[in-house]
Amino acid sequence: MKMPWTMYLYFGRRALMAIAASFIICMALAFVIDFVELLRRTGSREVPFTTVLSMGLLRLPSISEKMMPFAVLFGSMWAFLQLSRTNEFVVARASGVSAWQFLAPAVALALIIGTGAVAVYNPLAAAMVSRFEALESKYVRGRTSLLAVSESGLWLRQADDNGQSVIHALGVTNQGVELRDVIIFLYNNEDEFIARIDADNAELGDGQWKISNAQVATPGERRALHETYSLPTSLTLERVQESFASPDTLSFWELPEFIETAQEAGFSALRYELHWHQLASRPFLMAAMVLIAACFSLRLTRLGGVGQLIVAGIISGFFLYFFTDVTLALGARGVMPVVLAAWSPAFISAMLGGALIFHQEDG
Which InterPro entries does the annotation name (predicted)? Predict the structure, then answer.
């Protein structure tokens, strides 16, 4: 039997209301937990309460974006349990409607929500978390970002008690250890320009940049040539790599260009590629969450055991979270291909959910 559009809209509306309520609850819990953690981290520093509050609000969209699949899971379970308790699913089945037909509105809704989250919500969350990280660097870490990568090359800033220097390089090798075609501008503590260094390459060593074929130009003096030149630095390879913009600060639409630019500059863009594929797979992961929810909530309430099924559904959600973390960690380390690491949670969840529903309906 073909299900009328009125039933499609009715089941879709019930699922939307339950998912929205679940998402709001998840956002509230996430904000409280994150805000308490921010208060703990800033407790030993003189950070205004309003600044801490704004930091929590700025990071909330990014956190809630990651919780959307679980909001869909719990919201769908809630909606399906309510429809089962009121025997609305029983009536639908008695009229010849299959489980796949009354699951279709929720699956379509999950795909629409996921697509909107990636295309619209993600750019907003990325812009806000970028502002959060700037405040975090200033008030919590006590230092600002050191590194910027653009089409014109790499820009790096370092500072110490003797002043600061700004380094520009056209190319990078060995993940930031070696710079090619280098220009270094030196400033004193009063931000007055004191010298410029042009060199073929510079290598980051223990507490110094080892510069080859350096030409040092000082105002009022002749340019000096040095076969090797040492510039003291407090930078380490770890600090240089940490200064990269985190994937969360780049929107789904900005990531491809950034990946290409980083690769051309000589840096690995593996974690950015992984993040892009993870975002691309999110609508399908949300649809898979609906199928997983249906497995644990379509059982008739008169048969009993509903509480155990709810607990099993919640446990499956946490297991999926753990599995996703494991695959992403393997992908970030290059152990697993990026596409497989990002898409396998959605694919496996959909296959498992579909198989269980087939078993319940036809087995």
Answer: LptG, LptG/LptF_permease
In order of 2, 35, 60, 66, 139, the CA distances from 57 in angstroms are: 46, 9, 5, 15, 16
Length of the chain: 363
C-alpha span between 305 and 276 (Å, rounded): 40
Whether the Cβ atoms of residue 297 and residue 358 lie closer than 8 Å to each other: no
CA gap 363, 158 in Å, rounded = 66
Q: Token pair for residue 182?
A: 């280098």
Query: Quick one: how far is CA 279 from the chain centroid?
Result: 8
CA distance 272 to 247: 6
Residue pair 22/78 in contact by the 8 Å Cβ criterion: yes
Q: What is the CA radius of gyration of the chain?
A: 27
Q: Running DSSP on this structure, what letter comes out for residue 200?
A: E
Which tokens is 282 given?
Answer: 């999110």
Report how far residue 179's alpha carbon sits from residue 60's, in angstroms, rounded to the nearest whole number. 37
Query: If DSSP states are collapsed to H, E and C, what string results for 126-166?
Result: HHHHHHHHHHHHHHHHCCCCCEEEECCEEEEEEEECCEEEE
pTM, two decimals, is 0.77
Contact 248, 131 (CB under 8 A): no
Helix and strand element counts for the chain (H, E):
10, 7
What are residue 244's phi and psi, to 5 degrees? -60, 145
| Per-residue pLDDT tens listing for the chain (363 residues) | 566 778 788 888 988 999 999 999 999 999 999 999 998 888 777 788 888 899 999 999 999 998 899 899 999 888 888 887 777 777 777 777 777 787 888 899 999 999 999 999 999 999 999 888 878 877 776 555 556 666 667 777 777 666 788 888 877 776 657 888 888 888 887 778 888 989 888 888 877 888 888 888 888 888 888 888 888 887 776 666 656 667 888 889 988 988 887 776 666 788 889 999 999 999 999 999 998 888 877 665 445 556 676 777 778 878 888 888 889 888 888 888 999 999 999 999 888 888 887 776 654
